[in-house]
């Protein structure tokens, strides 16, 4: 069974940082690209970033480019999203995603 468990969310002030982690199990981690998605209150799900199987191809939505580096550690079956220079509009539930499988999410709340 594919399982994705996100952690690392919290409440921070504007300009702050958080590091999100997603621990995966139930599949061969190194064989798959992985993504982060987010959903702000009252809004739809937004794609944030994707990292390829070997980490050589990384993509970001425009609003987070230069602020949210994504990385992966295949030895730990974990994908990370470093959230830097957080803005109020980054407030959302953040999800790790493999194909259509998603974890339970971790909440990020940014205040001024």
Question: Gist?
Answer:
The chain has 112 residues and is mainly β.
Q: What keyword list fits this structure?
A:
mainly beta, globular, 11 strands, four-stranded antiparallel beta sheet, seven-stranded mixed beta sheet, 112 residues
The overall average pLDDT, rounded, is 97
Query: Roughly what percent helix?
Result: under 10%
| Major sheet attributes | 7 strands, mixed
The whole-angstrom Rg is: 13 Å
End-to-end distance: 40 Å
Taken as a percent bin, the fraction of beta residues is over 45%
N-to-C SSE string, H for helix and E for strand: EEEEEEEEEEE
Count up the helices.
0
Total beta strand runs: 11
User: What best-fitting shape do the alpha-carbon axes yield?
Assistant: globular
Structure write-up:
The protein is mainly β. The chain has no helices and 11 strands. It has strands spanning 3-7, 10-13, 18-25, 34-39, 45-51, 58-60, 70-73, 78-83, 92-98, 101-102, 106-111. Strands 2, 4, 5, 6, 9, 10 and 11 form a 7-stranded mixed β-sheet that branches. A 4-stranded antiparallel β-sheet has the order 1-3-8-7, with no helix packed on it. Strand 7 (70-73) and strand 8 (78-83) form a beta hairpin. The termini are far apart. The mean pLDDT is 97.
